[in-house]
Amino acid sequence: MKKVKLVLENGMSFTADNFGYEVSRTEISEIIFTTSMSGYQEVITDPSYYKQMVVMTYPIVGNYGLNATDFESSKPYLSALIVNEYTEMYSHADANQSLADYLKEHKVPGLCGLDTRELTNVIRNSGCLRAIIVPIDTEVSSLEADLKAWTYTNHVADVSTKVSYVCPGPNYRVALIDCGCKKHIIQKLSKYGCEIIVMPYNSTSEQILKLDADGVMFSNGPGDPKDVPETIKLFKDLHGKLPIFGICLGHQIFALSMGANTSKMKFGHHSSNHPVKDLDLDTILTTTQNHGYAVDKIDLEAHNLRLTHVSLNDDSVEGIESLDKMSYTVQFHPEGNQGPSHDQLFEKFINRMKEEKNA
Amino acid sequence: MPKNKSIKKVLVIGSGPIVIGQAAEFDYAGVQACLALKEEGIEVVLVNSNPATIMTDTDVADKVYIEPLTIEFLERVIRLEKPDSLLPTLGGQTGLNLALELDSAGILAENNVNLIGVNVDSINKAEDRELFKNLMNELELPIPASTIANTAAEAHAFASEIGFPVIIRPAFTLGGSGGGIANNIEELEKIVTHGLDLSPVTQVLIEQSIKGYKEIEYEVICDNKGQAIVVCNMENIDPVGVHTGDSIVVAPSQTLTDREYHRLRTVSLDIIKALGIAGGCNVQLAQDPNSSQFYIIEVNPRVSRSSALASKATGYPIAKISTLIAIGYNLDEIKNPITKDSSAAVEPALDYVALKFARLPFDKLKTNDNRLSTQMQATGEILAIDTNLEAAFLKAIRSLEVKNKYFAHPKFDKMSIHELSSLVTRATDEQIFQMFAMLRQGFDPLKLAKLTEINKFFVFIYKHIIDIENNLIANKFDIEVLKHAKKYGFADEDIARFWETTEAKVREFRQTSGLKPVYKMIDTCAAEFASSTSYFYSAYASQNESNPESDKQKIVVLGSGPIRIGQGIEFDYATVHCIKEVQANGYEAVVINNNPETVSTDFALADKLYIAPMVKEDVLDIIEHEKPVGVIVQFGGQTAINLCQDLTDCGIKILGTQNADIDRVEDREEFEAGLRKIEVLQPQGKIVNSLEEATLAAQSLEYPVLVRPSFVLGGEAMKIISGEASLVDYFENLDKRYFDKPILVDKYVNGMELEVDAVCDGSTVFIPGLIEHIESSGVHSGDSMAVYPPQRVTAEQAAEVVEITEKIAKEFKVLGLMNIQFIIDNGKVFVIEVNPRASRTVPFLVKTTKHNIVKLATNVILGKKLIDLGIDTKLAPNQKLISVKAPVFSFNKIHMIDNLLGPEMKSTGEVMGTDISFEKALYKAFLASNTVISHKGGVLLTASDTKKASIVPIAKLFSKLGFELYATKSTASYLREHGLKPTVVARISDDSEYTIKDLFAEGKLNYVLNVISNDSRVLADEVTIRNIAISQNIPCFSSIDTVSALLKVLVSQGSMINAI
């Protein structure tokens, strides 16, 4: 395998083997780590990882190949997949392709053969960093300025659907605001018989209301929620008019629309073992998480919000609901895949739509 | 819910002696539980019959009872101590069953004791086949279909309903004999007909076969609120059909998609919640490799062997958290003790692979059937950790303490593919070597996966190891190839073989190239949170996380590796105490070990713990990294002692007895010369190289003689020979490999055996007490019963033993612990063996004499003198109470060729009985070792001709006590000659209507006495008799001395009826 160099904005560099798509130089993006021990297929196709290089802390990746069902979208969104050990000789009855072949097909580089725990320690200590993959003989110092200067704000626009489309279903009609939606959110809603109309992130409230939907879902997505004022406005305009449920980025957008604030986290939550306390049910949920921004915990009440879920690890906001109960959102991924799912949050949405309809 | 404040005093039941399937993991769990309870201010009462456990130390529990684990004794403890609660989930199946019995007998209710951590209902639901089936149906979870058939027609009907293959198990046959797998109607017909025939109740169990499915386990924890998490999931590399305790197991699972992982995870959590278990639980599932179908295999509603493994594999202390839950806490109220910061409700994330290999006992317990099956046979296990599987596999084989330290096996590597193909289809302890041999010869990995039903993912890993091996062979002293090989776990020693050079040269080449391992932390969270756990494994990677800098001086303590016959939990006991004392002396204790079951690998114990193979390279790398002031080897059994030479050669300072002195003890000639010099008697002996020389030697020494190969351990291939014919026999049957080294022929001294463990400080010794063996010499010391204080030793003899001990200590410059075995014959004291290290009897002595000689020895090793430690006597005065140690065997788990006791050790564990009289102590020891004591019934007596005289007094006593005597023809007539009236019974092989077998079947026998001389040819009949006795749990004795001890008990408990 070809050797390449991974350079971080703090000046550190790692030599690695390049599998999947052979690359000489990538664009700059953010580097984060996830501690999920399985589910690489879901991770690489999750649009929330757009413009991010993802380090998998679990050291052996590729073992069960890729299958036809576990994609979270139609293509990989991350800018590079970084693992300790890549398994080419995969083994699974459902597998029809190796991870490397898939990455190659979609021009995504994979890195392996580096100390991913060291890299994880670096990211944990310095917070998420900008990074680039370059040829092995590149001078690190020549990249520093570019790395430090890099910013990107167009994440959601890049990954959101450009046109609306319908996933038919017999029951409630849900307008799904696609900020980079994972396929399993749609599948969960479908499971409950919903008809889903997937709308672009910059739809207007008029467009949504015209759909005569029973409820609105704001999806997950990449980047900083403050980069999508149009979607924040959309939430604000829709709030109170019909039941709304939001996940991840959708949750942050809700908080901002209500006047609360969000901040960038040190290195975010990227795992499928994150313990969250459900304050309403007084129980712990083990959740999948993938976010670099969080809703500030201060003054929620003042913004007509109440805390419904909180992280047991760092006490951060994991779920909120408007005091009028019309909208509620969670920071984690109740749809699972990868990771555990929490159907009760979808059931709540279905029930809310039912109540509104009956009312 | 916070802590339940009504819990003030808790009774904890241990798991008793070490047997196959129930080993040191329950000491580890029990210690964690007791300490957690004490930290919470709760008083702990502990009952366990096993003295070789840390949990029975008085600083672990407030009150420790070393008593037989029976309802009667537990009830007395309960009445005496009045605990308010009983925690039953940490003592294995033994503890759990006892708790259930106490409950159903009404004893718990009567004494107001609450079961905590579990309720009877949930145990029943998990363990009762029918209730479990119902629960699974309720939860709509699939279990393999099964039914009971009393006729072939019923079997047909079931098989045609669920389809083939099906498993047939005849009811109530020994070891499931007569069972099998039927793939079609014809096979079904044949097996069922035969099975119904064999079954005493004409009944077979027919079960849907899920053989070849992936076996997956989930370790789950649930709290009082029904909040549950998965601590760890594990994939068995051997498919369903091999007991998980014998399988190679990897954590986390490797071949499950996330969807499958979470499907099974959800199911496991649903089960623990439905069962209502508050604490740890193990769920075993089977996943079809070819579809999404899965089945629940079984649930263990308690802390298990797997949970100890999961604790060590993840860093998450399951027993501790389970205990906190049992006293009322919930997961969100407990901090993760590893990170100290994150919540205990976090499911651990691993960033390495943890691999378990089972240590099987077939090297010691000779069997002609080494197949692995649903009955666990392993005595112990090892854990190997790395960031890739290849390295984990190679570390595992180095850790296993078997002959081959690499996946090469001279026998199999010489075989043809054809021969290997027929062998490799059977799961055995040798299968992995056969697989490597085939891959080495170029066999297709995919075909191999098909043949073995082992997932091709793992076969590819093996293939990768072979590829690297070939690459090494083709590229000698190539640094890039070396780097690659080291990353994937190859040892310098293996590489030296491929490079046709020495290990030292490879090491030098490696080190001059700057290639050395780093140490990675096990932190439960894959580095997501900063952690300061000092729990490490090695990897050839870039960042080192084990900072060798310290304010304190460091001492490395070597552990004892996997538990196997001859090296049990006793050595972990000694290791743990050494670690504590090293710390108490102001040093930092660094532990190296690889046994996941033990207390010594509890990351909370030492200052630093390394999970590593106990071989030169891995240990030396750690020592060079840590730079300790010295290494202590004498508590880790033979594993640690074996490293002493290599470490010394590399200039590492050994603390305690030096390698040169250990060598002098182990080298026979130097040892003999040493003893002669200090005028200590030993049985005369000769060194021979052929049968001719042996014959001459035996003649001059006079029979009986003790014959054995040199440079072997634990009485391997040792035999007592009473005549020339037997000697010829011995030589003809001795494994060829032993002839590389001389054979030793010693005069067999038959006398009373004594055992001494002494602490030696260079100028004087301290002996906490003498241990007297109940069986005379000839039975391995590990298999014999023993008593403290001695019952037959005179003051003069004791004084002589002390004097000899001191002389030996000085002559061989022993510093620390030493074990000597003596024989007293006709008033003469002979030395038969000296071990310059901690021995198996150390914990028994610590418990009985109250002198912690490990602590003393550690202080001596660290430079203190005995006198400064308050020891001013050479032999401690005897305690008032009498303690008897009894061995415990696991014969019922293994199809052995023969289970007769002899110079080779066969027991797996021990128990202790203590009381005010010898008889009472004996009674407790028998009881604790699960010997069923009957005061009436029948005794079967068989003896070889030379031993017939010896059984007469015993037979008389049995008869006098009212027992019915049964004997085979020749024994019977001998007994008749001596005035007894035994019933003659035909041998099994006799062509007779009524044989010994029928006697067993009718339940007429309560004791079996089968006394034969050690060199008798093994008769099939006798083996069968012993096997039946073992399978029916009828006490079976081969030593007159053991029976005499038993009779002492019977006499003391019964009244003699004499007509006047």
SSE topology:
The complex is a heterodimer of chains A (359) and B (1060).
Chain A: E1 2-8, E2 13-20, E3 29-34, H1 40-44, E4 52-56, E5 60-61, E6 80-82, E7 85-86, H2 99-105, E8 109-112, H3 116-126, E9 129-135, H4 144-149, H5 155-159, E10 165-167, E11 173-178, H6 183-191, E12 195-200, H7 205-210, E13 215-218, H8 229-238, E14 244-247, H9 249-257, E15 262-278, E16 283-295, E17 305-311, E18 317-322, E19 327-330, H10 343-358
Parallel strand pairs in A: 3-4, 4-6, 5-7, 6-8, 11-12, 11-13, 13-14, 14-19
Antiparallel strand pairs in A: 1-2, 1-9, 2-8, 3-9, 10-12, 15-16, 15-17, 17-18, 18-19
Chain B: E1 9-13, H1 25-39, E2 43-47, E3 63-65, H2 71-81, E4 85-87, H3 92-104, H4 107-110, E5 114-115, H5 120-127, H6 129-138, E6 146-149, H7 152-162, E7 166-170, E8 180-182, H8 185-198, E9 204-208, E10 214-222, E11 228-236, E12 249-251, H9 258-275, E13 279-287, E14 294-300, H10 305-314, H11 318-326, E15 353-359, E16 380-386, H12 389-399, H13 410-413, H14 417-424, H15 431-440, H16 445-452, H17 456-474, H18 479-487, H19 492-498, H20 503-512, E17 518-521, E18 535-539, E19 554-558, H21 569-584, E20 588-593, E21 608-611, H22 616-626, E22 630-632, H23 637-641, H24 644-649, E23 654-655, H25 659-666, H26 668-677, E24 685-688, H27 691-701, E25 705-709, E26 719-721, H28 724-733, E27 743-747, E28 752-761, E29 765-766, E30 770-773, E31 786-788, H29 795-811, E32 815-825, E33 828-835, H30 842-849, H31 853-861, E34 882-888, E35 909-915, H32 918-928, E36 938-943, H33 948-960, E37 964-967, H34 969-977, E38 983-984, H35 996-1001, E39 1007-1011, H36 1020-1031, E40 1036-1037, H37 1040-1053
Parallel strand pairs in B: 1-2, 1-4, 2-3, 4-5, 18-21, 19-20, 19-22, 20-21, 22-23, 36-37, 36-39, 37-38, 39-40
Antiparallel strand pairs in B: 6-9, 7-8, 7-9, 10-11, 10-13, 11-12, 12-15, 13-14, 15-16, 17-18, 24-27, 25-26, 25-27, 28-29, 28-30, 28-32, 30-31, 31-34, 32-33, 34-35
Helix pairs in contact in B: 1-10, 1-11, 5-6, 7-8, 14-15, 15-17, 16-17, 17-18, 19-20, 21-31, 27-28, 32-37, 33-37
